TrEMBL record:
It holds the Pfam family HTH_5. This is ArsR family transcriptional regulator. CDD domains: HTH_ARSR (cd00090). It comes from the Bacteria. It comes from Bradyrhizobium retamae.
Length: 107
């Protein structure tokens, strides 16, 4: 299972969230990922290492390039965890609706 602490820690940085959002559109090289940012390629590479260490992205070797892509399993595990939270919140709201409806009928 994915280490959620590492994943959310990696996603706490806005630059890394932007990189993940870009990779959601498809695979990209380090240079392509660096284009919209006012930082050096080595700085982007450090962000990519954090994302890779958290299991959020995968890299492959293609000659001198190192294209990156999202790790589908990691995204699915985060979504699964968030789905559990959504279900819990929905159950809480449903119970609150029931209490409020009962209070209203007593009035």
């Amino acid at each position: 299972m994915l280490n959620l602490d590492a994943a959310f820690s990696a996603l706490a940085d806005p630059t890394r969230r932007a990189i993940v959002a870009r990779l959601a559109l498809g695979e990209a090289t380090v240079m392509e990922l660096a284009e919209p940012f006012e930082m050096t390629q080595p700085a982007i590479s450090r962000h990519l290492k954090v994302l890779e260490g958290a299991g959020l992205i995968l890299r492959r070797v293609e000659g001198t390039k190192r294209p990156c892509r999202l790790a589908p399993a990691a995204v699915a595990e985060i979504d699964q965890w968030l789905a559990m939270l959504r279900q819990t919140l929905a159950a809480n709201y449903n119970r609150l609706d029931d209490v409020l409806a009962e209070m209203k009928t007593k009035e």
